[in-house]
Amino acid sequence: MSDLDLFLTPEQTETIDFVVSKRFKNAAGNPEPWELRPITIGLNNALIKESTKKVTQGRKIIAETDEAVYGLKLVSKCVIYPDLMNVKLLEHYGAARPEEVLEKMLLPGEFAGLQKKCLDICGFGETLDELVEEAEN
Predict the structure, then answer these.
(1) Tens-digit pLDDT profile for the chain (137 aa)?
(2) What is the CATH number of domain 38-122?
(3) Are 18 and 104 in contact (CB under 8 A)?
């Protein structure tokens, strides 16, 4: 296999289970894990674009990304289970969008933990130095 062939067959990114909260318990009384997946660069760029607006600063118009909106959108796209688009879930929380379900369903600390995990599985958790060190080992 040539060196180029390594880039033609990357390892498939799998979904992971993550317990977001001890408050959501399954039939056995155990915390129910959520299923998460990473998103693509294309989807990430679209989420950034959706979360960015043009604002005027003096005589300049600049693009400003609302990090809170971006974070909610990113997490909502990483969550596979529970299905945040499920009509029953949306109706129960009085939400029109998956991001609203997250806002109404989770406590701030729970969301922060979920967001950190989503960022980690999307590759934002490791610094370039850490990746170089891992490659060298």
Answers:
(1) 567 877 777 777 789 999 999 999 999 999 999 999 999 999 999 999 999 998 888 898 888 889 999 999 999 999 999 999 999 999 999 999 999 999 999 999 999 999 999 999 998 876 555 555 655 55
(2) 3.30.2220.30
(3) no
